[in-house]
TrEMBL record:
InterPro entries: Heme-iron_electron_transfer, NarG-like_domain, NarG-like_sf, Nitrate_red_gam. Keywords: Cell membrane, Electron transport, Heme, Iron, Membrane, Metal-binding, Nitrate assimilation, Oxidoreductase, Transmembrane, Transmembrane helix, Transport. The keyword Heme applies. Signal peptide: none annotated. Residues 21-239 form the NarG-like domain. Gene3D superfamilies: Transmembrane di-heme cytochromes, Chain C. This is Respiratory nitrate reductase subunit gamma. Its EC number is 1.7.99.4.
Amino acid sequence: MTAPAQPPVSLAVEAGTGGILLWVVLPYVALAVFVLGHVWRYRYDKFGWTTRSSQLYENRLLRIGSPLFHFGILVVLLGHIGGLVIPKSWTEAAGISEHTYHIGAVVLGTIAGIATLGGLAILIYRRRTVGPVFSATTRNDKAMYLSLTVTIVLGLAATVAANVVGGGYDYRETISPWFRSIFYLQPDPDLMTGAPVLFQLHAISALLLFAAWPFTRLVHMLTAPLGYLTRPYIVYRSRDTQLGARAPRRGWDRVGS
């Protein structure tokens, strides 16, 4: 009688190593680059800390795509904060059942995701078809738009596939505790190994996006115009010989000295 074949030890080690690299090492590297990258950018590229607005080149498409994208991404961000940061036990203690939370999160998340993706599509179309805007687009901008699109599409696809088409997936039992464990300095990669593939790909793409964030125009999200509240008035002095805002009346010309 022969003994049953045992799985190779090397495969188990590689799988464990891969999980640690993806769900322990990568999050801390992305977090460190995100924080230190912003410090470096502000110190050595303060005048490049801008959105490089292209509103002067074209305004019609921008007025549609920009609010759609920004309001959509704001709702998505708030939804991620609520779902990842706030524990499930807290919402249940507040009287919000899992079913109610699930329906609200799926409906709002899907609508916000579609709005964000639609706004981003308009902005990309504008940047590609309007000549002056396209000329002002750098390779950095193209990589940023690609990364944003991949992250948003994967997040929307994961939500629809798991909670609309599929039977539902409670990410607050796995992904949320893993996310919080990163900040507790007790990362638990096993919580992510059983998550659906689309959720894993969405998490990886988001980490890579955050690592690239400080080196793109996305830095403007962390900018608030607080200085305008205390900035002194700018005094303009005219070089014209005419004094005042109106021309002097006839017969009252200034006499030169």
